[in-house]
Amino acid sequence: DCTCDSADLTPDNKTLTLKYKLGALCAILGSGGVGVALPLLGKRASFLHPENDIFFMIKAFAAGVILATGFIHILPDAFSSLTSPCLPDSPWREFPFAGLVAMAASIGSLMVDSLATGHFKKVHFGNKDAKVVDLERSGEHAGHVHVHTHATHGHAHGHGGSLLPNDQTILHLIRHRVTAQVLELGILVHSVIIGISVGTSQRLDIIKPLMAALSFHQFFEGMGLGGCISQAEFKSRAMATMALFFSLTTPVGIAIGIAISGVYDENSPRALIIQGMFDSAAAGILIYMALVDLLAADFMHPRMQNNTRIQLGSHISLLLGAACMSVLAKWA
């Protein structure tokens, strides 16, 4: 039999649990910060530059981590919350709401991805030329094209013909920036919920394994996000802001959880529904981003298709990243 009364579980000493929660806050803050900073600081290392073969393998590892986070860590929790015996049978156990919300979030991510990319193309190329500038088709410019890149503060001009190399760089940059921003949104939603769960827990047998597992979790997830931010080539301030948001979100969630632990009931219907809905949405976003914007984009890239060594290395890295994050699901 399941119980919906958290009071039935004997809480541990509050002072001791608070010490472990603060320890978890510091450990997760440090591991997340290091994880997201490595790819950003690693831009100075030649082997981490996008033009190098190993960069494909690092991105595949990061994508595997993010994919496993969505499928193994978040989505099962969402189903568990929204089918809890603490919720009424109707409608919560009569319909798979977690799957519905995850699907809607994936479709929403696709729409945001498409609309944002189209918008930024128009901003850079102008309304008239945005219709004809298409990287996939390598179409021709309609008349004179004037491009200003904020990343390089340079200009490029073209008259007819196929896309200029600078145009292709800008289009790739637009896709990478949209990907990084949508990916961070999904991760932040998930991170807040994780933090609150740790902060409100009153049992050491839950907090101790979570502290270790979530430290590794944030490190690997930070590497994945940091790689996307690095490839998007934001300005230094923007990169620092995105890295800081990621690093602080789970610790802030823990702090919120500590503050409300006296009144928060994680088994209340309202808490279960809110957590389940947010987990479902985060899972849908991360699964879409990992499969479409990270894996599909790289695995279908001509350079990988024509290089067996990169293909083999990337497949192994993908499986390794997914395996590492999947193993952590035993504790977190």
State the oligomer.
single chain
Major sheet characteristics: 2 strands, antiparallel
Order of secondary-structure elements? HHHHHEEHHHHHH
- Into which percentage range does the β-strand content fall? under 5%
- Low-confidence spans: pLDDT under 50, at least 5 residues? 128-133, 135-163
Helix content: over 70%
Order the strands across the largest sheet as they lie in space: 1-2
Gap between N and C termini: 23 Å
Number of DSSP strands? Answer: 2
Shape: globular
Structural class: mainly alpha
Radius of gyration: 22 Å
Q: Figure out the total of helices.
A: 11
Average of per-residue pLDDT values? 81
Summarize the structure in words.
This protein is mainly alpha-helical. 73% of the residues lie in helices and 4% in strands. A two-stranded antiparallel sheet has the order 1-2. A hairpin with a 4-residue loop joins strand 1 and strand 2 (154-159). The protein starts with 13 loop residues before the first helix and ends with a helix. The model is unreliable at 128-133 and 135-163 (pLDDT under 50).
Indicate the topology.
Elements: H1 14-41, H2 53-82, H3 89-92, H4 97-125, H5 127-130, E1 144-149, E2 154-159, H6 165-200, H7 204-232, H8 236-260, H9 269-299, H10 302-305, H11 308-328
Antiparallel strand pairs: 1-2
Helix pairs in contact: 1-7, 1-8, 2-4, 2-7, 2-9, 2-11, 4-6, 4-9, 6-7, 6-8, 6-9, 7-8
Keywords:
mainly alpha, two-stranded antiparallel ribbon, 11 helices, globular
In brief, what are we looking at here?
This protein is 73% helix and 4% strand. The chain is mainly alpha-helical and 332 residues long.
